[in-house]
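Mods, move this if it's the wrong board.
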Amino acid sequence: MDSVLVIIGFVCMIVGILGSFLPALPGPGLSWLGLLLLYLTQAVPNNYWVLGITFFITALILILDYVIPAKGTQYFGGSKYGIWGTNIGLIVGLLAPIPFGFIIGPFVGAFLGELYYNSQDHNRALKAATGSFIGFLASTFMKFVLCMAFLGMFIYLIWQNWNNFFH
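Not the wrong board. Structure tokens:
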């Protein structure tokens, strides 16, 4: 049973890393679930402090994931259309066969969203798209770093308790 939990936990870690880039998947939440599954095994001793602290950090990051892009857009004078455009542009950019579509897509999406909101002011739309894009990059980077840290913890715990899995 432990090996099944470890495999499912590892899959959660990988999907969590992908989810740090995809807006539809809760990347840090899935990575934390992978840690929880690892702690449910008999091989890894329970440490509720680690689970509690990592859960708190995960919840904080998930909240900040919504706040940071919105604040970036607001700071640069954007609207909710820019935020929606960023998310739609990310999905289109991931599916489009162009290089670096996941970087170009959110910026273009934010720009088009702001033009949809106010088609007269191109400079404002460009400025708001830049703010939305910077917020998106900061949020994505933060989620990615957290998911990679959780993966590192996961691998370390398996490495540290390797003999307990086969005992």
